Each structure stands twice: as structure tokens, then as C-alpha cells.
Amino acid sequence: MRFATILLLAVLVPALALAGHPEKAKPWQQGHAWARQMLDCSVAIPLNCGTVSGTTVGAPSNVSAYSCTGWNESGPEAVYEFVITGPECYDVTATISGLAADLDVFILGSCDENDCLTFGDTIAAAGCLQPGTYYIVVDGYSGAESAFTLAVDCVDCDCPVPDCCPFPFVCYEVDFNANDGGFTTQDCGGAPVWEWGVPTGIPAIACDDVPVTNVLGTILGGSYPASGGQIAMVGPFDITDDCPCLELCHFYDTESAFDGCNVKVSTDGGVTWTLLTPNRGYDVTTYPYPACIPEEPVFSGHQFNTAFLRDCFDISAYAGQTIHVGFFWGNDSSVQYPGWYIKWLKIGGQETSPAKDRSWGKIKSIYR
What we know:
Blueprint (H helix, E strand, L loop, with lengths): L26 H4 L14 E3 L2 E6 L21 E8 L4 E9 L5 E6 L7 E5 L2 E7 L2 E9 L6 E11 L11 E7 L8 E4 L6 E4 L17 E4 L10 E10 L6 E9 L6 E7 L7 E3 L7 E2 L11 E2 L10 E6 L7 E9 L8 E11 L10 H7 L2
């Protein structure tokens, strides 16, 4: 039985109890490669919070794959335009019911199947969406079509705080171009993956147009191995009020939800770990299969596989403490992709006043 999937964006939403459905095969298990096409939103139906009746029977079938899953969505799709006018932000849950066939529901950040925020077999939940225009699509698995009822529930939430990076004052910088940062590894139930050195098959330019020479990554010369899972740890870092933000410049390309990675922090030298959530949220929550990160929010998927990304994490709660940062990786046994590659980690903030008591290393870091 396939577990109904709830994928989260920006913040975690409460777990929803879903009924199981027959397992959907991945495209490679069916022997097909599903081509991506442009979603047609020219006749999208305006939608507000509430309940509407709809159907995919006889509708166009322009899309057969979405960036957040490997399911074969070759059935016709019903497209809805969902506008959050603001100033409030909303936790949004889209639920389809009354089905005569196997339909799925997707929430998109724009009119693009490659901008998939979350999906589900009958429920898709997106956390704290900011004001803007979104699209909710009901599509048919493996050619399915049916009438349906679509319910969109909206709950007020605190809008996400602005990104804390980039920042002018750098307390610590681990630049993997220059060296391996003294990283160490921990086992967590999977095959080893972490290496430092010259990568292949990834973008040559990182954040701020910096050329990539070396990275900390999951297998530098190819795809990650089957059933991989390992922690790379860097630190220690003494966190002060001047340094409330962690910045990560990284690149990832993985099988969505079955494989992925996240960032955790430890205050006891790596004995226990606490998840750090980036300002934009993680991409998905994993299935229970991968080692190290089962059913955890992760960076995952192919939607950002053309460039390095800058992600920011609020670590102000750790002021006055010494921390290590852990890069947690896990993947299942089925299909492998390039993986996760980290260019730099920086810890810093906005404070640049020379009146603060700082080490010479911190002062120099302002002018890097």
C-alpha cells in the first residue's frame, strides 16, 4: 500500500491521517520516460478558499510529470488559479474526494509544472504561503480521469521572516574551495557518500558568481550509491548575538522524496542533533525508506538542478552556545542521481559596529 504523501513548504503543517491506496509505480518501473510539457493556464478556473465540484473528463492533457514526484500523470488535468491577496499568509490544504478513478492533486508556485510546491494522492498541504498567485491542479495517474470535489482549506499563519543572508559581517566561513573544512563523518545506517575535492557533472559557478574548484559532496565522480546514508560534520562554532544566521551555498539533484538531505545542529559534539529549517522551507518530506532522514523534511528533487542555491537558517537560538553543523544525507536503493554538493558555509549577521569585541579573524572577515 502506498502511504498518502504530504509535502511541506516553509513551515511544517500538522500531520494528516490519510487512507492508503495501491502503490503507484515510478516511471522507470513502468519502462517509460515521461516528457515534461508546458502547463496551460489560459483557461484556469478562479478558486477561493472553500469547496467546488469539477471534472477532468474530457479535459486537455498537457502535462505528464511534475517536478515534485516521479508519478506518471498522463491523464487530463483540471487547472485552478488560487490567489492569496494578503496581507495575511495561509497554510493551504487541498483535498479531492468523490473520485471514480485515481486522481492526484498538486499545488504549484506558478503556472509551471516544474514549480511544484507540494502534491498528494488525495491531499496536498503547503505551509504558510505568502501573498501571490498559485495554481492547484487535479491530474490523473496513468491516464485516469474522473469527476471530483475539491476542498481548499485556508488557515492564517505568521508570514515567513525575510532571509537573513547574505550578510556583511562573517563570524565563520568554511570555504570548501580552499580546503576540506576539517569535516568528519558519522555513520547513520547507509553506505558512505561524503568526499571532498574536484566535482564533475555539476554547475561550474556557485553563489555570487564564484567559480567552483572544490566542494564537499556525495561522491565527486558520479552519482551517489544505492542505499547511501551518512553525516558530514563541521565545527565547532561559538555562536554570539552578532552571528544569528547560517548561510549555505549548495547544489542538489536527487530523486524526489525517496532521496534527500537536510541540515542539523548539535550542541554536544554530534551526540544528538536538531533539525535546522531554511527560511524558504524544505522541498518535501521523505518516505520512510532512506537511512538517516526517514520521514523528515529535506532538500530533494530536480527542480533546482541547474544552479547553486543560497539557503539561510536562523540560528539565533544558539547564541552563547558552541555548535557543530551536520549535513545529513540519505537515499533508497532504486535510482541514483548526482547528489548534494556544498560550496561554502558561512555564519554571520548584520552587525558591523567596530565597538564590538571581536577577534582579528572576525574583523578581517568583514572585508572578504
